[in-house]
Amino acid sequence: xxxxxxxxxxxxxxxxxxxxxxxxxxxxxxxxxxxxxxxxxxxxxxxxxxxxxxxxxxxxxxxxxxxxxxxxxxxxxxxxxxxxxxxxxxxxxxxxxxxxxxxxxxxxxxxxxxxxxxxxxxxxxxxxxxxxxxxxxxxxxxxxxxxxxxxxxxxxxxxxxxxxxxxxxxxxxxxxxxxxxxxxxxxxxxxxxxxxxxxxxxxxxxxxxxxxxxxxxxxxxxxxxxxxxxxxxxxxxxxxxxxxxxxxxxxxxxxxxxxxxxxxxxxxxxxxxxxxxxxxxxxxxxxxxxxxxxxxxxxxxxxxxxxxxxxxxxxxxxxxxxxxxxxxxxx
Length: 331
Fold this sequence. Notes:
alpha/beta; 7-stranded parallel sheet; two-stranded parallel ribbon; 12 helices; globular
C-alpha cells in the first residue's frame, strides 16, 4: 500500500536493526517496511501478543535478511546477543491493554518497565545509535485540554499508562547519562491490518470488525461520544523511520504520532457497519470502563518540527483496507 522508498529512499539499505515485538501488530509493519528498504532485521518476540503469521506475508521475499527469535525482553543475555551489531532498535514489545493492566498491574510493570530497562541497557552496551520506543497517548490521562501537547503534565489513570510514562523517563535518563540516543513516540490509537480481533482486550476497530462480521451489534462502553485520534499503522511506521533517520540527537523527547483529527466511537461504528455492508447493525452500549479516556487529539507541531513528520495515510483512507483485511480473515 505504501511505497516506503518514496519516503525513505535507501537510508536503511544494509543497516542491521532489532525490532522487539516485531511479530506483533505495529512491529510487523515496521519489520515489513525495513525489509522493503533493504535493512537486515532481527525480530525478537515472545509471541504472547504477536504471531509469526504476521510475518508470513512478506518473510519469504527477504528471508536472507530476516531472523525471527522467540524470546522475552526480560532475558538480558538474549537481548545482548541479538542487539550486537545493530544500528537501531525499534522497541515495540509490551503488554498493551488498559483493562488488562487493571487486572494484572504487577505483571504489566515487570514486562513493560523492567523489559524496557533491559532493552536500553543492552542497547547501551552494544553501542546502538538510537532506540525508538512505542510510547502511548494514554500518558495524557483524562485531561480535558485539547489538543494534547507533549509538554502537558502526564496523568496516568491506568497501570498501563503508568508503565509507559515510566519507560519515557528511562529513555530520557539513558540519553542524559550515556551515549545512547532515544525517542519516545506517543502513539494515538493505531489501527490497521494484523491488529488482533480475538483478544479479550481487542482495540475498538478490531473489536467492531469481529462483531459486525458475526452479524452482531458493535458494543460501545459509555455513550459513544468519546473521541479518538485514530491513526493508520503506516503513519506510526513512518514516524519510527523518520526518528531513526533524524540527524540531530532526540535525547528521549516525547513526540506525538497521530493524524491530528478526531472521530467519535459512534461515528466509527456507523462507518464500519456501512463499509461492511451491514448498516442495520447499530451500536449496543454498556457501562464505561475504568481507566478509559474520554477524548484524545494530538498536537502535531513537534513531530513536524523535529522529524518533519506528517501523516501519509488519512483515517478514511486507512479504514477501508483495514476493514477489507478483517473481512478476509474473519469471514
